[in-house]
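In this section we walk through a basic example: taking a raw amino acid sequence and producing a predicted 3D structure, encoded as discrete structure tokens. The instruction is simple. Fold the sequence below.
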Amino acid sequence: MIYKGIYHLFYQYNPLGAVWGNIVWAHATSTDLVNWRHHNHAIWPSQPSDINGCWSGSATILPSGKPIILYTGVDKENHQVQNYAVPKNLTDPFLVEWVKPPKNPLMAPTSMNQINSSSFRDPTTAWLGPDGRWRVIVGNKRNRRGIAILYRSKDFLNWNQAKRPLHSAKDTGMWECPDFFPVSISSPNGLDTSMIGSTVKHVLKLSLDDTKHDYYTIGTYNYQKDVYIPDKGSVDNDSGLRYDYGKFYASKTFFDNEKGRRVLWGWINESSSVTEDISKGWSGVQAVPRTIWLDKSGKQLVQWPAEEVEQLRMNLVDSRNKVLRGGSTLEVTGITAAQADVEISFEALDLGKAEVMDPSSTDPQVMCSEMGASVKGKVGPFGLLVLASKGLQEYTAVFFRIFKGKNKYVVLMCSDQSRFSLYSCFSSLSLSLSLNNETFVFILLFYFHLSRSSLNEENDKTTYGAFVDLDPVQEKISLRSMIDHSIVESFGGRGKSCISARVYPTLAIDDGASLHAFNYGSESIRISRLSAWSMNEAQIK
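The resulting token sequence is shown next.
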């Protein structure tokens, strides 16, 4: 949230270890979303309604300007209940002290409401209806049906459960960290959470506990009936739209009224093992804050790193109109490749050579897993090799492929940090052929080296994929990758598709890291423009 010109980030934190447990609300503030100052914990277990944990929640700014936090507490019976906390001193812009009034909890499972007490958590930012009543939703499930339970209140203290939920969907499991907010159909500017009207659509975001991914739908909020109806084609399950197709979970937006934008925060979890997390003493990071708005098509959201992040850029390297022949790479020098911000635009020189897409190929992650960066195609793969070691024994490939679909071209975006390789796939074959064909064995070994983001076999090396809704005939294919040692956040098609990855290279560290543009397809690709910056360090105190 933003209060008196200060941004506040509250996050789930374990003060006693590097892995989940002993959860409190840690608190940091910033004037620019980039440089942060930590304060004492804002909320921690201290009363019967939260003695076993202070879990996720949200902040709401009342019309008076006073902020209130709603959060899930785990009570002495291990039931999940909803509590609130308020600032002790409203004149303090840093809000370093919070108090819990004795009225807690405000919402709780009972024998009357039959709410599942083990799956009742994560209240949203509240919105004020035209009738003067506040609304808030809380994530829940009943059997396999995910539910957004709706509550109403006239005074923000006495809450009544609505007869029906805001929305629900079968076979989706527990809905964690729901988020419900309006977006403008005509402008990228953000809207206050209570905004309704004919020029507004609504977004319902859910963090599905079953898959540990964030999904969203775009639809209509009927405020007279207090129900949300997804638009036709906006899918309600784990095959639907996602904020990010990589490691990105438990996200939350807030309305920045000073800059007229909606800002998205998300948690990037680990690819390292629990043992390694304990050894290094930390796990999990916040993604770069992103501005989020409705695409002109009205069918999806668009995300872009908050403009303040650009203040960290330095030492620009700029290149234009470079042609990458099939099978070639171009090293980008003059920057710190382990900590960089890269924007690049591509043009396919002969789209007519694109491969015909298999009509049965509907899952982009499966497609990227089967056709990693080392698998040669026609128009693609082309993109960036980031966090690459000097001899390319390690790298993470972020790339595109273009296919001929039905009546249009299809653009596939992949982030390949997979442990899969042609060498490992054909290891027995390579042994039998090595007696008669040394050259063939050499080629297989070559692909083995190209397919690894890290030589550490303990890391999760899942390959991620997404389709990008753009027409390569009319538009350049753009990619922005923000690289920070173990993190790669990538934005395809000017933020239409986003993929975040965690990689822990063993060779591509600090000065041992390099950056390359590449084209492993048979058809030439033009780099219209490549701009790359070294990134300075943010100040965290």
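Looking at the output, two observations stand out. The chain is about 5% helix and 45% strand. The CA atoms of residues 320 and 529 lie 4 Å apart. In the next section we compare this with other chains.
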